[in-house]
TrEMBL record:
Highest taxon, organism lineage: Bacteria
Protein name: Alpha/beta hydrolase
Lineage, opening ranks: Bacteria, Pseudomonadati, Pseudomonadota, Gammaproteobacteria, Enterobacterales
């Protein structure tokens, strides 16, 4: 999850996530929802995600077109590349130069 505090020793990905998810530009909780389910998840609210891998059934989306976008510096780039490999045509992988995850 995204840390609630960072310091000079925090890993780069923690700083990147904090900069987005813990600031007004990315921190959003819909009406009638809870921050614990959106931008401030806890260990108990994350249980549903622990055994979830969204690309296991990606072939069921086909033949709808799919566009995968990732940054060339994104720590998560491998997930976009994996999804792209698993997907059937039509598909496109767009890699944004000099970009991270968020």
């Amino acid at each position: 999850g995204t840390p609630h505090k960072i310091d000079a020793d925090s890993p780069p990905i923690a700083k990147e996530f904090y900069d987005f998810y813990r600031t007004p530009r990315g921190e959003f909780t819909p009406k009638n929802s809870s921050a614990a389910l959106t931008t401030h998840p806890t260990l108990t609210s994350n249980v549903k995600f622990m055994n979830f891998y969204p690309f296991n059934d990606i072939e069921t989306i086909s033949p709808r077109p799919m566009l995968f976008i990732t940054g060339d510096k994104a720590h998560s780039r491998e997930f976009s590349e994996d999804a792209f490999q698993r997907a059937a045509q039509p598909k496109e992988l767009y890699i944004v130069p000099d970009a991270g995850h968020v």
